[in-house]
Amino acid sequence: MYEDALTAVRDYGKRLAELRKCLNVDGTKQKISELETVMSAQDFWNDPEAAQKVVQQLKGYRTAVDMPDKLHHEIEELDTLIELAREEDDASLEGDIEEHRDSIEQHLRRLEISSLFMDPRDAKVALVSIHPGAGGTESCDWASMLYRMITRYCERQEFDYEVLEYQDAEEAGLKSATLRVTGVNAYGMLKSESGVHRLVRISPFDSQARRHTSFAAIEVLTEIDEDIEIEVREEDLKMDVFRSSGAGGQKVNKTSSAVRLTHLPTGIVVSCQVERSQHQNRAVALTMLKSRLYDIEMRKKQEELDQQREGQQDVAWGSQIRSYVLHPYQMVKDLRTSAETGNITKVLDGDIDMFVEAYLKWNLSRKSGQHASA
Hints:
This protein is α+β, with helices and mostly antiparallel strands. The chain is built from nine helices and eleven strands.
């Protein structure tokens, strides 16, 4: 038993050393030092908005290096525990050894997932929008279930999220919702959910208890940097104002401060109700619009690369990516990666790690094939 555990410790050490190189831990520590120098300046908080971005960036860098350092100490502690148990021949420590091994394995796996983030946008803030498809109340209810799944996933990942917009549907569920999610690799972790999600179940809204198929779409964008120029002309914008409402119908503002912007050339519509004034909500909505326009340009470039590949089919924007079947059997299956599970309750409660990891590996191999054929 002890020899197996010591072999595992050596394997953990090798995996961690490879991950430290892949994640550029030493380079990240240098960036932390540079940001700490910037924050020590007397005029640092003169521009609160810019200062807060630096603080968030520093938080992300620290989180990126904290886990490898913590893992290093955990591996050392496990090695010491194994030696102690072997020297004293103390079988009572076997449970502690297994517990340490499980913890290290879990943390290593999370780090290995982090190493899959190859897109520079992965570390950015994510804007997540959820919309029901055709199907009335059934689809609106399904959209609200996906909203809960995403927010529960954010909580599991210790991501911070802000509700930028939430509109209740007439009977049940939601008509539209948008979240701003911050955290380490927030966009990278959430981009796997972008696309159309299909639900098959016995409808709770059907008096004859018939089986229904519903669709809802999740859109995941990155919040663009200020140095990226996206031109939006005032004459191309139509602005409407309306009263805000919160999740579950709770009114968050009784005045008509919520803003809806329509970009006339593209037909893109964005809304924001999180701030107290029309001016502030308009500014946030404009940022969301620019993110969508930026995403369109990025997808055009990706499509050009996709055309260079032969014999491969990609999941197109807006196409069905995952099926959730509640009846006549229970199964969640991702149509891109073939990852599947019968525990649909856990998935809808935000436990989507297996789908996120499978997507990251699938996307990396897809891009590797793309580069090989270029």
